[in-house]
Amino acid sequence: LRLVQSLDRRRSAIVAQLRTGHIPLNRYLFRIHRSETLSCPHCGGLTPETVQHYLLLCPHYQHERHRHLRRTLGRKAESLPYILSSPDALAHLLRFVHATKRFNTTADSAQRPL
To answer: Which of 56, 62, 96, 113 is most buried, judged by most C-beta within 10 A?
Structure first.
C-alpha cells in the first residue's frame, strides 16, 4: 500500500493489477473468457502473454524495456519482484507501461497519459 499511496488512482490500479496478474493481458483475459487466446499478440501464438512476458521478455517491447527499465535500473530490471515492489523502480515501470501503450483503450485516449 505504501508503494502506491502517492500515485493517482489510475496509476495505482495499474501497479496493483501487474502485481496480482489481474491485468488485461491475454493470459488473464483468456482465463476470464474475454479473449480467445492466451498467447501474446506479438509472438506468433507461441508464448502466453503473462506479466513476466510483457515486462521482461516480449521482443516487441524491447526498445521501451531498454529505454525505461534496463538503462536506468541496470541488472535489477531483470528481476520481476524488484520491478513490481521497489519504490526506486516504480516511476520507471510506469514510464515503460505508458511507452508500450499496451493498456490504452478508446476511453483512455481522452484522459491524460500515465
So the answer is: 96
- 68's CB contacts (< 8 A; 6+ apart) are 92, 93, 95, 96, 99
Quick check: pTM over 0.85? Answer: yes
Instruction: At 85, list the grid cell.
Output: 515492489
Residues 6+ apart with CB under 8 A from 73: 82, 83, 88, 89, 92
